[in-house]
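Researcher: Before we compare anything, I want clean individual predictions. No alignment, no superposition, just each chain on its own. First chain goes here; please echo the sequence and then give the structure tokens.
Model: Echoing the first chain and its structure:
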Amino acid sequence: MSKEEQVIMGSRDLLNKMVWLNKFKMEESLKGYKSSEVHCIEYIGRNVDFNVTKLAGFFYMTNGAISKIAKELIKKALLKATGSRITRKKSILSLLQGKVINKVHEELRKEFQARDKAAFSR
């Protein structure tokens, strides 16, 4: 196995272990929300003037897939879209009650970073 393959395999293994360590607490704290919904909320919370097309590009997903997620989040009153409906370039997405979900997710991220700090300081 080449050095490049070793690095890729090691990185993948590390990420899988981190996901496994975080999974149970994330599912418990964010019950009722899909991972894709939480990550869309997180990204919209961190960025201004984001629309479906920009999100689709960031997540390497289709506009239709992101639009479907956004419509579900709007129905749950977590997001709002400016304009009359969600279109790829016209509607800017922003957080409503999604701010609460974003805060919970950010607190979990900080907790996990503190837990893992010793391992990554080496």
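Researcher: Okay. Second chain, same rules.
Model: Second chain and its structure:
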Amino acid sequence: MTVAAILSGKGHDTITVSGDVPLSEVCKTLAKHKIGAVVVCDGPEAIDGIVSERDIVRVLGNQGESALKHPVSSVMTREVMTCTEENSVNEVMARMTQGRFRHMPVVKDGKLTGVISIGDVVKFKIAQVELEAEQMRSYITMA
């Protein structure tokens, strides 16, 4: 199965901010949308970075509340790992685990088309295992 299967159920909606937005506004955006990361885009859907709850906690721990006035561009991860809809779920899960991050933007032709989280991947994998188990039970009862 591929990332496209996850997005077909979840949707392609993305929440982005520009790099000059204060970190305090990013916190409000994360809370409002109940998400754990936001993609930073200053151009038309081109990814400049990503900032997660972990990034925010780290900077607050180091700099205190004054960090909330800094632009998100000073905190964001600039080297963003992305995937495409054609990537397999297993491949994406392995990359997230290896890189120790929980959110991955999905791109097509260099443009942002979605974001998947490790939660989305796990939910998809559980549904897949449950379907296979049900098919196996059905097969056994028919035999």
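Researcher: What stands out in the second chain?
Model: The radius of gyration is 18 Å. Additionally, The mean pLDDT is 93.
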